[in-house]
Amino acid sequence: MRKPVEAGLREWVEQVSMLLEQDGVPRMAGRIFGWLLVCDPPEQSLEDLASAVQGSKASMSTMTRLLAQSGLVDRVRLPGARRDAFRIQPSQWQTLWRSRIALIQQATALTERGLELLSGRPPAQRTRLEELDRQYRFFLRALPEILERLELEEPSGERRARARPARGREPARHAT
Amino acid sequence: MRKPVEAGLREWVEQVSMLLEQDGVPRMAGRIFGWLLVCDPPEQSLEDLASAVQGSKASMSTMTRLLAQSGLVDRVRLPGARRDAFRIQPSQWQTLWRSRIALIQQATALTERGLELLSGRPPAQRTRLEELDRQYRFFLRALPEILERLELEEPSGERRARARPARGREPARHAT
DNA sequence: TCGTATGTTCAGTCTTGACTGAACCCACGG
DNA sequence: CCGTGGGTTCAGTCAAGACTGAACATACGA
To answer: Contact at 8 Å (CB) between B104 and B136?
Structure first.
């Protein structure tokens, strides 16, 4: 029986999940992610999570897997431990933004295909799509550069030395 | 009864709607948007839309309003015409990206609030959130600049006017 | 080998919201 | 003043999927 999550934090976690929900993330998954952002210690077992976000074990299992698959969360097994632990994946933001880029790529592919379909038509009919296409191409060019800049700006010298003195050494491993 | 939409285009429109769906746009609204991107003429009545995307009049009414409210589509009344017409709003992309920025703003607000809540805690517990907060701040700074660049690159000077006065007067059908 | 602790999967419930036909409202032309 | 075309709104249906308890699978310690 864990100590109940402080009220302020619980509410905050809920807000995180509601924000994530707008991006298609299930509520419960959002809560887990939110909680993992602020919990202490950073690694939490399924049971920890279940009690922290007040969800079923089944949800924890399903949603942690979903989060792990989308690269937002790491599943780790501390050596000798009996249970798995979860923590937010340090470079989750990369995953996030790369998936966003992937979306834009899809969109660009679509506008191109659309222009093909309209190839025979009068120019006036194509301008709308052409404009959109131009936009997407622009962002496709610009976004990676932005990400680059973000990475350069990194103050804490990238996450190399992010070594957290968790009890015991970490398997710093990222399986899947 | 309009001529049925060409098969290739119909499929393309469907793909557009499925892509938009990932951003929380209802299927039918996505179809309308897709269709408005390629149709001829660019202005379409409710009836046109209904037959083009094979949906009910009710859907057309609801979804066009939704699209208009989110700034993706314009409702216009050609002078003397009896029916309203819809066309994609020329600067829809701005709306799109601005709403994206708004999301990031919300997120930033959340990370800040979170850091407040953790103010008393040991630094080690705060790093995760601090990192995320940094990321969001960065994008909040970077994105407007990007949009600016996109606008400058614009070949057709048309979209200089950011809020073009709607040609047909706003029908007082419903406010806000 | 068994018993137990962990995690996964299944079947079912319940909520949400997209979509529809039909009723309704309103402005305009007679 | 009616009648009609155009648009909105309502009530209801339907499907998707989030969430759950419980059954199931697996590995490990005794």
So the answer is: yes
3-state secondary structure of B110: helix
Q: How far is CA A148 from the centre of its chain?
A: 18
Q: What is the pLDDT of residues A91-127, one digit of tens each?
A: 888 888 888 888 899 999 999 999 999 999 999 999 9
B-chain CB neighbours of A107 within 8 Å are: 19
Q: Which helix (H) or strand (E) holds A103?
A: helix A92-117
Domain assignment of residue A1, yes or no: no
Q: Looking at the structure, do residues B97 and B163 belong to the same domain, yes or no?
A: yes
Does an H or E element contain B120, and which?
none
Cβ–Cβ gap B88/A128 under 8 Å: yes
What pLDDT score does B97 carry? 82
Identify whether A2 is part of a domain: no
Confirm if B47 and B56 have CB atoms less than 8 A apart.
no
Whether B117 sits inside 8 A of A88 (CB atoms) is no
Give me the domain span that covers residue B133: 92-168
Which strand D nucleotides have any atom less than 7 A from protein CB atoms? 5-10, 17-22
Query: Cα B140 vs. chain centroid, distance in angstroms?
Result: 19
Give how many domains chain A has, as a whole number. 2
Query: Rounded to the nearest 10 degrees, how much is the dihedral formed by the CA atoms of A155, B97, A140, B73?
Result: 170
Which chain B positions have a beta carbon within 8 Å of A24's beta carbon? Answer: 22, 24
Cβ B76 to strand C below 7 Å:
no
Last residue of a domain, one of B69, B87, B105: B87
Q: Binning pLDDT at 50, 70 and 90, where does residue B174 land?
A: very low
Domain shared by B117 and B60, yes or no: no
Domain end, chosen from A46, A67, A87, is at A87
**What are the distances in angstroms from CA B122 to CA A39, A90, A117, B133, B151?**
12, 18, 59, 17, 45
Q: What is the DSSP letter of A24?
A: T
Task: State the CATH number of the domain containing residue B61.
Answer: 1.10.10.10
d(CA B152, CA B146): 10
